[in-house]
C-alpha cells in the first residue's frame, strides 16, 4: 500500500466522510485539555490538535509531513514531558500496538491525557476488514482492535477512562448517494445501536 493510494482514499467521498467525523470529535475534546506540550502520533496530514491551546504542538510518525520522523513505538521524547498525546488510528496500522501504548505511558506526565481513534471490528465498517475483495485495501488492511480489548490494555497501564464515543454508523459505501439514503442510521446510531459505530474514540 503506497502513500499515494492512502492519500487517494482520503480524498474520496468516503475518506472525507471519515475525516469530517474524526476532526469534529478531536476538535471538541482537545479544546478542553490544558497544559504545555501536545503531540499527535500518525496521520500528520490532518491537524487534529488545531483547537488545542497548549503552546507547543507537533506530530510524530514515519509519514511525509510529520514534524518529527520517528517510529511510534520508539519515541525520541523525554519521559514525563507531554500533557496530551493523540493517536488517530496509530495502533491498528502498527505491528506492535502494545509498544506504542507503553511509550505513550512513558512520555505522559502523571495526569496526562491520551485520546485514541480506531476502527470498530464489530461494525459494518469492520466487516470490510474480513472481505477478500477489500481486505488488502486501505483502511481495511489494518489490524482492527476491539474497544473492549483496548480498554483492557489501557487499564493494565493504569490509565483511567475519561470518555469516548462511537460514530460513522452509515455503511461505508464508496458512493455518497447511498450513504445519504441511509443517513438516518447516523442520527439514530447512538440511541439504537451504540456499539456498532464504524469508528470509536477513547479518552483516558
Describe this structure in words.
By secondary structure, the protein is an alpha/beta fold. 33% of the residues lie in helices and 21% in strands. The chain has 7 helices and 7 strands; from the N terminus they run H-H-E-E-E-E-H-E-H-H-E-H-H-E. It has helices at residues 3-11, 13-30, 97-107, 124-128, 147-156, 176-181, 184-192; strands at residues 37-41, 56-61, 68-69, 82-88, 108-119, 163-167, 199-203. It has a 7-stranded mixed sheet with strand order 3-2-1-4-5-7-6. Helix 3 links the parallel strand 4 (82-88) and strand 5. The chain is globular. The two termini are 31 Å apart.
Highlighted features:
globular, 7-stranded mixed sheet, alpha/beta, 7 helices, 7 strands, 21% strand
Distance between the termini: 31 Å
Structural class: alpha/beta
Q: Major beta sheet, specifics?
A: 7 strands, mixed
* Estimated radius of gyration: 16 Å
Tell the overall outline.
globular
Spatial ordering of strands, largest sheet: 3-2-1-4-5-7-6
What is the topological layout?
Elements: H1 3-11, H2 13-30, E1 37-41, E2 56-61, E3 68-69, E4 82-88, H3 97-107, E5 108-119, H4 124-128, H5 147-156, E6 163-167, H6 176-181, H7 184-192, E7 199-203
Parallel strand pairs: 1-2, 1-4, 2-3, 4-5
Antiparallel strand pairs: 5-7, 6-7
Concise account of the structure shown:
The chain has 7 helices and 7 strands. Helix 3 links the parallel strand 4 and strand 5. The protein starts with a helix and ends with a strand.
Amino acid at each position: 500500500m503506497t502513500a499515494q493510494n492512502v492519500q487517494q482514499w482520503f480524498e474520496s467521498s468516503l475518506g472525507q466522510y471519515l475525516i469530517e467525523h474524526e476532526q469534529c470529535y478531536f476538535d471538541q475534546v482537545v479544546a478542553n485539555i490544558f497544559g504545555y506540550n501536545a503531540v499527535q502520533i500518525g496521520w500528520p496530514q490532518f491537524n487534529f490538535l488545531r483547537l488545542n491551546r497548549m503552546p507547543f504542538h507537533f506530530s510524530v510518525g514515519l509519514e511525509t509531513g510529520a514534524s518529527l520522523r520517528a517510529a511510534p513505538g520508539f519515541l525520541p521524547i523525554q519521559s514525563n514531558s507531554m500533557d496530551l498525546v493523540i493517536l488517530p488510528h496509530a495502533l491498528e496500522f502498527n505491528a506492535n500496538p502494545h509498544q506504542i501504548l507503553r511509550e505513550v505511558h512513558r512520555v505522559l506526565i502523571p495526569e496526562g491525557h491520551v485520546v485514541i481513534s480506531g476502527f470498530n471490528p464489530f461494525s459494518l465498517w469492520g466487516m470490510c476488514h474480513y472481505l477478500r475483495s477489500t481486505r488488502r485495501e486501505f483502511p481495511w488492511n489494518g489490524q482492527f482492535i476491539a474497544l473492549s480489548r483496548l480498554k483492557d490494555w489501557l487499564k493494565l497501564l493504569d490509565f483511567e477512562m475519561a470518555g469516548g464515543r462511537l460514530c460513522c454508523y452509515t455503511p461505508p459505501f464508496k458512493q455518497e448517494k447511498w450513504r445519504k439514503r441511509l443517513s438516518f442510521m447516523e442520527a439514530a446510531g447512538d440511541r439504537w445501536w451504540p456499539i456498532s459505530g464504524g469508528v470509536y474514540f477513547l479518552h483516558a
